[in-house]
């Protein structure tokens, strides 16, 4: 362990790395339940997505640990799974098999861009205010989905949306949200996962011991079962290369690109995981791992994999080497056999996690200069159009185009890079092909 991970050089030890790995896993484990909850709404089997989620998280985190040697867990990304389900499958009516093919091809694009270091150059061309706004917009989108899954926010013909009348299920959701928020505020390790478990248990009496006029929210199906490998290799590689699917691949490529790079840079700065040039430690290998995770996700039956910002929990606990990621990755594996137990988790139990993960993701808005209006307006449009249009793609596209238009007509053409002009062409193509 010492000779491979260089624990002493990083001022850490085996015990610290193990505890850090457990901490990161507890902070990330909600994805085991939340990812199948979201993707199952695309018509995919819950247990199959759960198996795919575990496989992607396990293998990708191990690769991050052994190959990139960074203390960062990799798993199917929040926001990316929302785009997969609500924008691609439900919004654009793309069959989920074709959407999985788009995930695979986006992973291949990631891999090529990462190996030749083009990925970093492209992202540097994207204005930082737009990067921050897109991350925040995805957070708002996830929060909206959480409230909708809990039926806290419902359709209202008079006001477009409204709040549902109080009922036992809604009260249970609010109790779970409060408990989870308190644990997050108090920095309780695994607080989100504990909140999911609490809300699930609190949901069991509904329809049984009280509110008997309602259908039970939970049905007991046992605890252990064989993994469901039904989604493996179910991707449609041919139809996913059609011209009409290009916008989907485009959105996966750029959304995952922003997410993973910002995660690597942010965590590296926070933990001082920098090389002699002040760049993130092993960034090329880390981005290659991220690309492999996305490719693997398409093959296994999940939305794209990405580096998890929740890895900061383990880093704060002292994790400094790839051993942290290895430990965290290994802890995903037992959940291959716990699909029946986790499939009992109702939507109102994962809804608090979605709402609060949205709160984590909205933090970058503080980095936007809201008094520089030619920066602020495109950033604002990108941020609000993601939840308002129920489409991550639309928010990204209009953010890029409005940035270019404003800079052009205000005499700041020099702030528009050649790479951004190229991206604008793809954005317009995405609008035409939509």
Automatic annotation (TrEMBL):
A Gene Ontology molecular function term of the record: purine nucleobase transmembrane transporter activity
Question: How does the record classify its membrane topology?
Answer: Multi-pass membrane protein
**What's the chief localization of this chain?**
membrane
Keyword Cell division assigned: no
What are its GO cellular component terms? plasma membrane
For this protein, the parts annotated as crossing the membrane are 18-38, 44-66, 98-118, 130-154, 166-185, 192-211, 231-254, 321-339, 345-365, 377-401, 416-433
Domain of life assignment: Bacteria
Family indicated by similarity = Belongs to the nucleobase:cation symporter-2 (NCS2) (TC 2.A.40) family. Azg-like subfamily.
Protein name from the UniProt record: NCS2 family permease
